Request: fold
Amino acid sequence: MKNLLNFLKKFRDFLIFFFLQVFILSLFFNSKNFHKATFINSSSSISGWMLDKRHNITKHFYLEKENDSLAVENAKLMEKQPNSFYHLQNKIFSIHDTLFEQQYDYIPATVINSTSNKRNNYITINKGTLHGIQKEMGVICKEGIVGFVVDVSAHYSVIKTLLSDKINISVRLLEQKGVKGQIKWDGRDSKTCQLHGITSDTRILGNETVITKGSKGIFPEGIKIGTISDNIENNGSLTLDINVKLSTNFDNIYTVYLVKNVLKKEQHNLESNYFNE
Amino acid sequence: MNNYWVKYGINFIFIILLQGLIINQFQLCGYVYPMVYIVAILMLPFETNLFLSILLSLALGIGVDAMSDTFGLHTSSSLLIGYIRPYFLKLIKPRDGYDSTMLPTIHDMGKTWFIMSTGILLFIHHLWFFTIEILRFDLLDISLIKTFLSSIVSLFIILLLQYLFYKPTKQ
Reply:
């Protein structure tokens, strides 16, 4: 007993250090799992508040560029409005079309903190549970896909971006609807990611667009991810190694939209009977 | 000495804010991510006991983690530095010990001593950070390049801060 006490006394500092280190590293490795982000992060009220104050100072540097691109987006959306079409056949044109019901709602938000040079990159936005944001909502921007919400507080939320490990998004090609695969990021370059799971007998013409499949109900179908860059390697295995040039510029991201799927709960309840985890 | 701890507390908070609000936004290229906050541990007096050093590095790491979404990575690396610094100082101790009126700043200890000791601790810190962050053998090259480039940039910023914010102790 006395020896044990002496031992503890002698190694007290080492033991404190060791247990703290193990505890914190376990929190860190848990946070890679997308359901368990538990450590204090920038959605907490104090640091969120400070990042918000910094954003209030620096936001003016980006406003002009942002206005230009929003105007371009507005123009594109205006082309799709009913009043910019003329009636080819008067009788069958209807604005309140009951064939379509709303499935996805979008909540706009502004980025107040972001990184793109780490292994796991996160974004903080200035909206939280008060604005209707929940965990696991998908996040897109006007150029393409951004990521998922991993943690929410009253006024802020943290988004895990596509530039992370253990992220896995089902995609397909725009022209060839049957060609499906998964998007992953290997951690090398913030402008390209990798497309896995496409068999080597598929013929891919250069510069094809990769879009989301929308099968999990997190993202709508057809959100752009990027274009396939030219060098496709066939290394003799069953699947191809394909690099995809991302359309979203993660170095310079300002306005994002959170995707709220009205039917997600229904889909989840139905699927959970058959796929447990 | 009391006065010193007040000043140290202000510096401590200032360094967390500096790292969290300004230096985290440096994105020179994908390989440079400077981390200068461990200067708060390096500025502790020579005779600080190990327990206090660990506690302060824990607080420092949590403060930085809260602002940069790293989920404990900064805390882990800063704990490591807080733990090994007293042993490291013992290892490079001059023959007649440290002068207790001196502080480990560049003005009191000289350029060579400061750059060497800070450089080694920074390198260990960055190596730990990027290795744990990436943790894959096929990306070993990237973690080493990131460690080297970021250590150099961090050391440069720390030297700049030394000349801006510290004065020689009056003898």
